[in-house]
Automatic annotation (TrEMBL):
GO terms for biological process: L-arginine deiminase pathway. One of its GO terms (molecular function) is carbamate kinase activity. Pathway: Metabolic intermediate metabolism; carbamoyl phosphate degradation; CO(2) and NH(3) from carbamoyl phosphate: step 1/1. PANTHER family: CARBAMATE KINASE, CARBAMATE KINASE-RELATED. This is Carbamate kinase. Belongs to the carbamate kinase family. Residues 3-291 form the Aspartate/glutamate/uridylate kinase domain. CDD domains: AAK_CK (cd04235). Keywords: Arginine metabolism, Kinase, Transferase. It catalyses: hydrogencarbonate + NH4(+) + ATP = carbamoyl phosphate + ADP + H2O + H(+). GO terms for cellular component: cytosol. It comes from the Bacteria.
Length: 311
C-alpha cells in the first residue's frame, strides 16, 4: 500500500457558481476521480486549496461588519473554510466509499501551520485569494478596500494578495500519522492550513495564507508519503507555456527542472509554486512527485500521464 498525498487546486471545488450547492456538486465529481486511488489500494491523504472560498467569505464578513457583529479575521476565515470544504469532501467520500462497498473511514482535520514570525513574506504580500477582477474594476476595488494589495494573476485578471510565509511545521502532523496508520483517509491542511506563529506555549493566528502546494509537500514529507500528486487544470508542466514552442514535460529530474525555476519560466500565481513544492518534496524524501490534471487521475495512477519529477 502506497501512501499518496494528493493536493487539489481550486478547480476541484469552485466553478463559475460560488453557491454551496454548486461547490458540493463539484466536490462530488472530484471524489469520483479520487476514489480510484482507494480502489487501487493506496492510502490516500487529501489536501486542498481555499483561495476563492476564503476571499468570498472575507467579502461577506466585510459587507456585514459592525460593532455588534464584527468581521472575522483572515486566520479565522481560513479555519471556517477548512471546516466547510472538509465537510463537503468528507460527505462526498463517505458516499463514494459506500457506493463502492469499501469499508473505510474518512475525517477532516482543522490544521494549523506554524510559520516564522520573521518570514520575509510578511513584507511582500504575494498570495492571491478571492475572485478575479478585470482592469476596469480595479479603481472601484481600491476605493472600497484601500488597504488591499492587488496583483495580476497569470493573465487571468487581478486578485487580492496577502502574505504567504513558508510552512515550518504542521502542528497536527503526529495525529495525522496516527490516523493514517489506522487506515483512515484524512482531509488535512485545507488552504495550506491556518497560519500560526509560536510564542512560548501559544500559537497565534496571523493574517496570511499558506500556499497549499508547499503545505502539501510539508505534509507529504512529515507523514513519509511515497508520492506527492498535485492535481490542477492542466495536464502537466510545460516549458514556454502558451508560446508557439511550448513543450510538455513528462519525466524530469529535480536538478533539471530547478534550472527552469531559476530562469523564472513558470507563472508565479499558478505553476511556479506547484513545481517548487514538487521539487522540495523530491529533494527532502527522494520519492517522486507528479503534477497533472484532475481528469487524468486514472492515467496518473497507471503512470502514463502527468509530469513526473524525480531524483
Amino acid at each position: 500500500m502506497a501512501k499518496v498525498v494528493v493536493a487539489l487546486g481550486g478547480n476541484a471545488i469552485l466553478s463559475n457558481d460560488a453557491s454551496a450547492d454548486a461547490q458540493k456538486k463539484a466536490v462530488k465529481e472530484t471524489v469520483k476521480a479520487l476514489i480510484k486511488f482507494v480502489k487501487n489500494g493506496d492510502q490516500l491523504i487529501i489536501t486542498h486549496g481555499n483561495g476563492p472560498q476564503v476571499g468570498n467569505l472575507l467579502l461577506q464578513q466585510q459587507a456585514t461588519d459592525s460593532q455588534q457583529n464584527p468581521a472575522m479575521p483572515l486566520d479565522t476565515c481560513g479555519a471556517m473554510t477548512q471546516g466547510s470544504i472538509g465537510y463537503w469532501f468528507q460527505n462526498a467520500f463517505q458516499e463514494q466509499l459506500a457506493i463502492n462497498g469499501i469499508n473505510k473511514s474518512v475525517v477532516s482535520i482543522v490544521t494549523q501551520t506554524i510559520v516564522a514570525a520573521d518570514d520575509s513574506a510578511f513584507k511582500n504580500p504575494s498570495k492571491p485569494i478571492g475572485p478575479f477582477y478585470g482592469t476596469a474594476e480595479l479603481a472601484q476595488i481600491k476605493q472600497e478596500h484601500p488597504n488591499w494589495e492587488m496583483m495580476e494573476d497569470a493573465g487571468r485578471g487581478y486578485r487580492r494578495v496577502v502574505p504567504s510565509p513558508k510552512p515550518v511545521e504542521i502542528k497536527e502532523y503526529p495525529a495525522i500519522k496516527q490516523i493514517i496508520a489506522a487506515g483512515i483517509i484524512p482531509i488535512v491542511s485545507g488552504g495550506g492550513g491556518i497560519p500560526v506563529i509560536q510564542k512560548g506555549q501559544q500559537l497565534i493566528g496571523t493574517e496570511a495564507v499558506i500556499d497549499k502546494d508547499f503545505s502539501a509537500a510539508k505534509i507529504a514529507e512529515l507523514v513519509d508519503a511515497d508520492q506527492l500528486i498535485i492535481l490542477t487544470s492542466v495536464g502537466g508542466v510545460f516549458y514556454n507555456f502558451g508560446k508557439p514552442n511550448q513543450e510538455e514535460i513528462f519525466n524530469v529530474t529535480a536538478t533539471e527542472i530547478q534550472k527552469h525555476i531559476a530562469a523564472d519560466e513558470f507563472a508565479k500565481g499558478s505553476m511556479m509554486p506547484k513545481v517548487k513544492a514538487a521539487v522540495q518534496f523530491v529533494e527532502k524524501t527522494g520519492n517522486p512527485a507528479v503534477i497533472g490534471a484532475l481528469e487524468d487521475v486514472s492515467d496518473i495512477i497507471k503512470g502514463t500521464k502527468g509530469t513526473v519529477i524525480h531524483q
